[in-house]
Design brief:
Layout: E1 2-10, H1 13-25, E2 30-39, E3 50-52, H2 67-73, H3 76-85, E4 93-97, H4 100-108, E5 114-117, H5 137-142, E6 148-152, E7 161-162, H6 168-171, E8 181-184, H7 190-197, E9 205-209, E10 216-218, E11 221-225, H8 228-237, E12 240-243, H9 248-255, E13 259-262, H10 269-281, H11 293-302, H12 315-326
Parallel strand pairs: 1-2, 1-4, 2-3, 4-5, 5-6, 6-7, 8-9, 8-12, 9-11, 12-13
Antiparallel strand pairs: 10-11
């Protein structure tokens, strides 16, 4: 059996989840990997069959998307050419993690494909959203359209939605509490964050920055380049995680029984939805870094961690059920 697994390369969450799923898929046949997008710092251990420019959003430094950088990076003629030229008919199962090239190629070639992603959980109207719906709902529907859906979210909001995929390397971590706080806020400048965190209660901070290549220290703040192993080590030993409105990072921190505070990106609807869902679990959320930021952070530092989640290890069974249900040659 031939399988194609297509993965979004914007941000690190999609690739991180794929690192867990790829070895499971390899048990069922010959697996080809496709990645599109340009904004991930982590990579897969296995070679790629296809690598596309795709369609990526570029993180800014003031809490949102850098629209001008995103526009400059955009290459619609190349995207359309890749969609038209991608050969897919040899595959018995096409799996998609919010990846647009393969999704639209499948639609053009009238082939079925299966979403295996966090984003497809928004196919369900039961998945939490702000009261005011955004035009960005069309992204959930049309950015990476597929015929079938297997979703992941903080809770099982619908019958096709599962709790998060927690990577084995996270499940197997030995946790401790060294008292520091880990920070991953890729849409903010690390120097801005360091200056503000210097004003908080005197705890240690580990900022992981997309922009820094060399570590540096500023007062009680250490700044590191993004690195999977170093980040996991910091997370395992931290008191809490200060992060954006992503999905995999907060889910892994909650699984490790760490305190979490979220600052969703401005104008990023999916992150606003994620933050709302996390707040229903008890995760504190702030929506801007303003003159109340230090006050909110100090309150969070002094708070107790009373959130307990149940994220069982079901990934192997989810993959087995998916192959049995959707593959041509079962």
């Amino acid at each position: 059996m031939k399988i194609l697994y297509a993965i979004q390369g914007t941000g690190n969450g999609h690739i991180s989840r794929a690192r867990e799923i790829v070895p499971l898929l390899q048990q069922y046949g010959e697996l080809d990997l496709l990645v599109s997008g340009t904004e991930a710092e982590v990579s897969l251990a296995q070679p790629l069959k296809y690598r596309f420019h795709g369609f990526s959003f570029v993180f800014g430094t003031q809490g949102g998307v850098d629209n001008w950088a995103t526009f400059k990076l955009m290459n619609l003629p190349r995207l359309l050419k890749d969609i038209r030229n991608l050969p897919l008919k040899q595959y018995d199962l096409i799996i998609n993690d919010f990846e647009p090239v393969s999704a639209w190629a499948c639609r053009l070639q009238k082939l079925p494909s299966v979403s295996l992603s966090h984003q497809c959980s928004f196919v369900s109207p039961k998945t939490p959203r702000p009261a005011k719906r955004s035009w960005a709902e069309w992204l959930f529907k049309y950015y990476s359209p597929t015929t079938d859906h297997i979703g992941f979210h903080f809770e099982r909001y619908d019958d096709f939605i599962h709790t998060p995929v927690i990577r084995s390397e996270i499940r197997n971590l030995t946790t401790s509490n060294a008292g520091h706080y880990t920070v991953y806020l890729p849409a903010y400048d690390d120097k801005l964050l360091a200056g503000l965190l210097n004003k908080t209660s005197k705890v240690q901070w580990h900022i992981f920055s997309k922009r820094q290549k060399i570590p540096y220290q500023q007062g009680n703040v250490q700044v590191f380049p993004v690195n999977n192993e170093a980040f996991n080590k910091s997370l395992a030993a931290c008191e809490g995680l200060l992060t954006g409105g992503g999905f995999e990072g907060p889910a892994e921190a909650l699984f490790l029984r760490k305190k979490v505070m979220m600052i969703p990106m401005k104008g990023q609807y999916e992150q606003q939805c994620n933050a709302l869902a996390a707040s229903k679990l008890g995760v504190p959320v702030i929506y801007d870094i303003d003159d109340q930021f230090v006050y909110h952070i100090n309150n969070w530092i002094s708070s107790q961690n009373n959130i307990s989640v149940n994220f069982p290890d079901e990934t192997a069974q989810i993959i087995a059920d998916m192959v049995k249900r959707y593959a041509k040659n079962k």
